[in-house]
Specification:
The structure holds two protein chains of two kinds. By secondary structure, chain A is an alpha/beta fold. Chain A is built from four helices and five strands, in the order βαβαβαβαβ. Chain B has a five-stranded parallel beta sheet with strand order 4-3-2-1-5, with helices on both faces. The chains are: A alpha/beta, B alpha/beta.
């Protein structure tokens, strides 16, 4: 059975490590040529913001990892349409972001949905 | 998509014992699955879940010892189990090899857990009929 993976990040970028570890999982799967997409919801949409500067809290920016997503073969970055309409202009213009009307319908297109 | 009659499961635990319910819930699922003839292909500890592999956990005597119960289950049913190396190193879970490599004074990863990378997760999840994720917050 062909697997298609959707990783959902629903927590803010620097509050805990779950988003970073979700991204590690997604990049690993993509590096092994699995079909992988990422979705950002809730506070997780802030991962997509431009000009993140977490040096003040001694953390590395997540943007750099996200910018590498397409190089690793990650197929799409999804975000709920409502969040895209509200925050789209603040998002990193270097990322190709796809708004979706329904996260539930999106999830149904994948065999494996991972939310840590 | 219904699971086959005798399904193969991979379990990913990302919640720590005594911080979350994840290890207990996963163990109860694993026991029930095996009792009904299903197979647990692999258990993968990730994120805070790696604390389940610690040899140094000492719960009070009137509380369940979840790490010991998991070790017993894994040995009894010969289930391979991996502790993710990146998660483990960050959180102070080291096997003998990593303790030597980083010149630390002790190793604390319990058998039968082995320390390895996300390749173990990907192999298990690729081959299993279903992969279940047990975390502490959803």
């Amino acid at each position: 059975m062909e697997r298609r993976y959707l990783f959902i990040i629903d927590r803010a970028p620097y509050g805990d490590w779950s988003g970073r570890e979700t991204l590690d999982m997604a990049l690993s799967a993509a590096a092994f040529d699995q079909p992988v997409s990422l979705a950002f919801s809730g506070q997780g949409v802030h991962w997509l913001r431009a000009e993140q500067a977490p040096q003040g809290i001694e953390q590395k920016t997540g943007s750099r990892n996200l910018a590498a997503a397409s190089l690793f073969g990650i197929e799409a970055l999804y975000v709920p349409k409502a969040a895209f309409d509200r925050l789209g202009t603040a998002f990193d213009s270097g990322l190709e972001i796809t708004p979706v009307a329904s996260m539930t319908e999106l999830a149904h297109q994948f065999s494996d949905v991972v939310r840590l | 998509m219904p699971a086959p009659e005798a399904a193969r499961f991979a379990l990913v635990i990302t919640g720590a014992p005594y911080t979350s319910q994840a290890p207990q819930t996963a163990l109860q699922f694993a026991r029930a699955a095996v009792a009904q003839g299903h197979t647990i292909d692999r258990v993968f500890l990730y994120g805070d879940g790696v604390h389940l592999a610690s040899t140094l956990t000492c719960p009070p005597s009137d509380e369940a010892d979840w790490p010991a119960q998991w070790q017993s289950f894994l040995k009894t049913h010969a289930v391979p189990a991996t502790c993710c190396i990146a998660s483990a190193l960050r959180r102070g879970l080291l096997d003998e090899g990593e303790a030597r490599r980083y010149e630390k004074p002790a190793a604390n990863v319990a058998a039968p857990f082995v320390v390895a990378g996300l390749g173990d997760w990907l192999e298990a999840t690729s081959q299993a009929d279903r992969t279940l994720y047990f975390n502490g917050s959803h």
